Amino acid sequence: MLRIAVPNKGSLSEPASAMLHEAGYRQRKDRRELVLVDAENEVEFFFLRPRDIAVYVGSGRLDIGITGRDLLLDSGSQAEEIMQLGFAGSTFRYATRPGTATDVSEFGGMTVATSFAGLVTKHLADHGVDAAVVHLDGAVETAIQLGVAEIIADVVETGTTLRNAGLEIIGEPILESEAVVIRRTGDPSDDPKVQQFLRRMQGVLVARRYVMMDYDIRVEQVERAVALTPGLESPTVSPLHHEGWVAVRSMVPAKDAQRIMDELYDLGARAILTTGIHACRL
Length: 282
Known about the structure:
This protein is of the alpha/beta class. The chain contains 9 helices and 15 strands. The chain folds into 3 domains: 1-85 and 177-205, Periplasmic binding protein-like II (D-Maltodextrin-Binding Protein, domain 2, 3-Layer(aba) Sandwich); 89-175, 3-Layer(aba) Sandwich (D-Maltodextrin-Binding Protein, domain 2); 209-274, Alpha-Beta Plaits (2-Layer Sandwich), CATH 3.30.70. It is globular and about 80 Å long.
């Protein structure tokens, strides 16, 4: 069986399980379950702390896993990213009190507090900065107020929490993170079971981004209409019983669907319908 690590809690957990469910895999009904066997799909799921997943995959104990890019890089494990999953996006940045520093190059001799010590230590080394790094588990913004550090490095969404603590974001982002699929570094890329898993997950990503659009239009307007709905390869165009009319079917980006419907209507298209896509293979 393919052995897959899945986050058991936190912001990665529910979206990961939802995506796996959409991909056709069984998922646990009880949060206390630590192992779930999906015999039909020949997969065994292990529900682990997100921070530990890269360690298990990197050691070869598990085949692949779902975790955050930030957690993967912070772990220092022998694991690598093989697919982006498009959820749990975050930005990792430095912050400090106004007037302390404006860029990472000015951190020399200072202390940086963070929950991602491995990631920050490497980032400072890459920039040739000699600064101390203190590891804290959560709520790092209080480290400056309590005198533990002059700088913090943390996940930033809106920046409201940092501003409320009297801090300002400085320098360029350390990392743009999101949920990713990982495997052990050096493992073969053509493993059939892994490739099947990746195809399923890719199918979910595409199904979430696109809708199927159907409409009827006069033959004289077909070329202009299909220019709006080119599809992935090309649209399906079928003659209707009503002479001079055709039916068109095509995948279109979900975010553009309403605008495309308006433009098709202006061209004379009628019976314009959109339907969700639950799964696909491209």
